[in-house]
Design brief:
By secondary structure, the chain is α/β, with parallel strands linked by helices. It has a domain of 225 residues: Amidase signature (AS) domain (Amidase signature (AS) enzymes), CATH 3.90.1300. It has 14 helices and eleven strands. α8 links the parallel β7 and β8. The chain is globular and about 60 Å long. The two termini are 21 Å apart. The relative contact order is 0.14.
Length: 425
């Protein structure tokens, strides 16, 4: 018999509805897991167990509020919360206490979700590693920037947690930690109340241990409740592999993971999986994404650069210096290239295939926690605004998880989730 903390959110939801489990027992079990493991994993910035237990007891006494009634979750410390400080991974905001919740946090609470606490983010959701370790091997990075959320879900501290992606901050840590990471179509989840890194790229998402839970989370965060009902994927699905123009950086473990996923797809859908090579338009698109990201970031952090330069890490100072040096002409040209690429990928995902199988990361989580790993295999999909989901289908030569990501067309989130569910079944 599973301990309550081992349940997925969907399993817990069924147990709560059937009165075979109380929210108090579920939350208490998650708290005990955190107390047992946090000294190794370091996933949390702050928790309030007393408040969470009080909320759980209140949930047990009240009518069901919504899809997450009585279910605990974690929130990346990039998102405002009225009852927890929000530090954005920076000492500049050590004492920052928002007066309201980020939009998606408010919606999750409105649906009955119980916030256990704030999870570690890297400095302003960039690349400087934090204290969080990989639950599979504490000598390795969990990835970033949503480090704490990915690790907390992977270590069974909480069934679901929120994250954000501007380059690869949902998909990459999900791959390294061996969990589901879902980044929906750009703009699907409101970024209100989130510290912005790059407004044209920032996309909110979630971590979970099942596709159903990921769908449940994003349905709650968007109000698109149809997402919570993952449909059966049509057998006529056209699926292709795509290693992107950066294929030469993929490790042998990643190549094997892609091949494994392709075989699963062929077995399930009884259709051959072809390989697609992107056109020359996409060749330098990762560089385009990087320039847009840093040009916008330099403006997003104008205040911090002017008022608190001494409290910015040398790493982020270097990246912002790059962003400040990008001319408006270059930035404008990059935006044009990005839009051309979006139109091209829309055409490809209409005429040639429905879903792409692509690498989530170069390979297994690198050793050391001062880095978060290279987001190279996520950059173009983030720039294109496409929905992506990491599936933990393989392990590498060192025994660590190696994920693959499924990529769908813009707005086709339900279709993406249906294929993901089929491959995970």
């Amino acid at each position: 018999m599973k301990a309550p903390y081992e349940l997925t959110a969907s399993q817990a939801r069924v147990a709560l509805e059937s009165n075979t489990l109380t929210s108090e027992a579920l939350v208490h079990s998650c708290i005990e897991r955190i107390q047992d493991r946090e000294s190794t994993v370091h996933a949390w910035v702050q928790t309030d167990f007393a408040a969470a237990l009080a909320a759980a007891r209140a949930a047990d006494r009240s009518p069901r509020k919504g899809l997450l009634h009585g279910i605990p979750f974690g929130a990346k410390d990039l998102f405002d919360t009225h009852d927890f400080p929000t530090r954005y991974g920076s000492p500049i905001y050590e004492n920052n206490q928002p007066s309201s919740d980020a939009v998606h946090i408010a919606l999750m609470r409105q649906a009955g979700g119980i916030l256990l606490g704030k999870t570690v983010t890297t400095e302003f959701a960039t690349f400087k590693g934090g204290p969080t370790t990989n639950p599979h091997n504490p000598q390795h990075t969990p990835g970033g920037s949503s480090s704490g959320s990915a690790a907390a879900v992977a270590d069974y501290m909480v069934p679901i947690a929120t994250g954000s992606q501007t380059a690869g901050s949902v998909i990459r840590p999900a791959s390294f930690c061996g969990v589901i990471g879902y980044k929906p179509t750009y703009g699907k989840i409101s970024t209100g109340g989130s510290k912005s890194l790059s407004p044209s790229l920032d996309t909110l998402g979630c971590f979970a241990r099942s596709v159903e839970d990921a769908a449940l989370s994003v349905a709650t965060m968007t109000g698109d409740f149809e997402l919570a009902n993952v449909p059966k994927a049509p057998k006529s699905m056209r699926i292709a592999t795509c290693l992107t123009p950066d294929a030469d950086q993929a490790s042998s473990d990643t190549i094997l993971a892609i091949e494994h996923a392709a075989l699963l797809a062929e077995d399930h859908f009884k259709n051959p999986v072809k390989n697609i090579r992107l056109s020359k338009l996409f060749t330098k698109l990762a560089e385009t994404q990087s320039r847009i990201m840093w040009a916008e970031s330099a403006k997003s952090f104008s205040f911090e650069q002017a008022m608190y330069p001494e409290q910015l890490s040398q790493q982020i100072k270097g990246l912002l210096k790059i962003g400040n040096a990008i001319t408006y002409e270059q930035y404008s040209n990059d935006l044009i290239v990005a839009e051309q690429a979006r139109q091209a990928i829309d055409q490809l995902l209409t005429q040639s295939c429905d879903i792409l199988i692509a690498p989530s990361a170069i390979g297994e989580a690198p050793s050391g926690i001062t880095q978060t790993g290279d987001p190279i295999f996520c950059r173009i999909w983030t720039l294109l605004g496409l929905p992506c989901i990491n599936l933990p289908l393989s392990r590498g030569s060192n025994g660590l998880p190696v994920g693959i990501q499924l990529v769908g067309a813009r707005g086709k989130d339900r279709l993406l989730l249906s294929v993901a569910h089929a491959l995970m079944s």
